[in-house]
Amino acid sequence: MRIVNGIAQNYFYFASMVIFLIGFHTMLTHSNLIKKILGMNIMETAVFLFVVSIGYVRGRAAPVVGGEAQQFVNPLPSALILTGLVVGVSLTAFALALIIKVYQYYGTVDADEIMQIRSEER
Amino acid sequence: MTHVPVFVIISCLGLAFALPVLCRFRPRPAGWLVRALLMLNTALVARVLLFVNHQGTFYYHLGSWPPPWGIELSIDYLGLFTALVVHGVSLAVVFYAQTDLAGEVDPRMHHWYYTLFLLLLASMTGICFSGDFFNIFVFVEIATIGACGIIALKRHPDCVEASLKYLILSTLGSGLILLSLAILYMVTGHLNLRYIAQHMPTAWAAYPLNVNISLALLVVGFGVKAALFPLHIWLPDAHSSAPAPSSAILSGVLVKIYAVALIRLIHTVYGHKLHQMIPVTQVLLLLATLAIFAGSLFAIGQRDIKRMLAYSTVAQMGYIFLGVALLTENAVVGGVTHIFNHALMKSMLFMAAGAVVYQKGFRRISDFHGLGREMPITMAVFGIGALSMVGIPGFNGFISKVYLAIGALDAGRPVYVAVILISSLLNAAYYLPIVTRAFFNQETGPATFRVDRLPLSMKATLVILGGLCIYFGLVPGSLLRLVQKAVQSLLAT
Fold first, then answer.
1. Does ipTM come in above 0.90?
2. pLDDT tens digits for B336-351?
3. Under an 8 A CB cutoff, do B172 and A40 touch?
4. 8 Å CB contact between B90 and B121
5. How many domains does chain B have?
6. How many beta-carbon pairs under 8 angstroms link A with B?
C-alpha cells in the first residue's frame, strides 16, 4: 500500500522512469540504427522530464520578477535542462549525420545487416 | 595568475571556433596555430602548478558569482596533475599529427580535425578543473562529440561505424550521469561538489536510497565512458579504427579523464564514511580485476596491432581503478601515477603503430617479422613501451605497479599483488613477441640495416616520448611528490 501511495503521489517520477525504460529497451533491442537513435532520444527526454519535475512544487508559480505569486517553484532544474536539450539535439544531429555516412558505405541502416557485411569482408 | 586556468579552457574553445573561419581559404596555418597555443597553454598550466605550490590550492568563481550560485573551478593538485598529462600528451600528438594526419585524413579536412581536437582538449581540461557537477556533465558531452568526431573524420566505413557505436553508448553513459546528478540534487539541493559533500551526511541519514542509486548510476555512467570492463565493448573498435593521432589521445588520455572525474566524485562528494556502508569499492575492485585479466586475454588473441593496443587499454584501466578502489594511500598513488605512465606509454605505442602504418601500410602483427631492420627507431621505441607495459624495473610502468603492490599489502589484501604479477606476465605474453619478432628474426626482412623513412616530426616525437618513459622510470621523484600531494588532499576529505 505504501508503494502504491508513493507512486500515486509522485506519478511524474514513475512516468519518467517508465519512459526511460521504454527508450532504453528500444535502444538496445532494435537493430535499425534510426530506431536506436529514437530510443536514445526517448531516454534523454525521460531524464529531462525527471529533472524538471524535481523542481516542481504543486500549487506554486514560476518565479517572475514583478509577478503576484508569493511562493515559487525551483527554476534551476528547468534552466539546467535547457542546456541538456541543446546538447541532446546536437548529439542527435551528429548521430543522424553518421547514419547517413553508414548508409552511403553499407547501403543499409540495419545494425545486424552491417555486422553481416563486415564479417563477410574479413 | 588566478585567471589562467579559465584562459586555458577558453582559449582552446575560442581557437576551435575560429579555425574554420581562419582556414576557410588558407588551411595551411591551422596546425601551426594549434601547436603554438598548446605550447603556451602547457607552459601556463605548469606555471599555475608552481603558483599553487607556493600559495596553496584555490577556487575560481566564473563571472565572480560565488558558489552555491555560480560555477566554481577548483584548482587543486589532482586537477593540475591531470591537466598537465592532458596537455603534455596533446602536445606530442599535434607534433606527430603534423605529418601523419596527411596519410589518414583528407587535407581539406585538417582544420576541422583540429577544431574537434581543440574542443576535446578544452573539455578534458574543464573536467579536470571543474568543481560543479552540472559543469562536469556539460564538458563530458562536449568531449563525447569531439571524441566521436576525430574518429569519424577518417573516410573509412569502419571509422564511421565505430564512431556511431561509441556515440550511442556514450550518450547512454551521459544520460545516466545526468540522472545521477538529478537524484543527488533532489536530496542535497546543490550542484557544487563541496556543497553536496557538506550536505551528504544529512542526505544519507534521511534518504539512503537516493544516495545509493545516484552512486550506482554514477559508477555505471562513468564506467561506460572510462571503459570499465563489462562496459568496454565500444573501445576496441573506436580506438583501433581511428587515425593514429586520435587513437593516441583517446586511448592515452580521454578514458582516464573520466576515471579522474569518477575518482574525484566518489572521494570528495560521497566521502569515506559512506564507503564503509556502501560496497562501491568492493564492486570496483572486482570489476578492475576482471578488466585486468579479460583485457589481457582478449589482447593476446588479436592479430591487428592497434586492436591489441586497444584491448591492452581496457586492462590498464583496470590497474587505475584497482589502485583507487584499494583506498590506501600507496595504492591510490599507484593508480593515479599509472594515469600518467599509461598516458605516456600508450600514446607512444599508438604513435609507433601509426608510424608502421605510415611507412609500411600494414597493421597485422604477423607482418612485423624483421621490421626492426627497416624501422629500427620505431621498433626500439615500441620495445621501450612494451617493456614499460610489462613493468620491467627501469621503465616507468614499474613505478606505478610497485606502488599498487605496496598499497595492496597495506590494505591487507595480498591477493591483489598476485593479480598484478600474473597480469604482468600476461602483458609480457602479448607485447614481447612483437619486439623479439621484429629484431631477432633471422630469415625474413632485408639483409641490410636501414634507418626509418619517417618525417623528422614523427621520429622526434617518438624518441622524446621513449626517453621520457625511461626518465620517469629512473627518476620518478618529482612525479611521485606531485601525485602524493594530490592523493593526500583527495583522501583527507
1. yes
2. 999 999 999 999 999 9
3. yes
4. yes
5. 2
6. 69
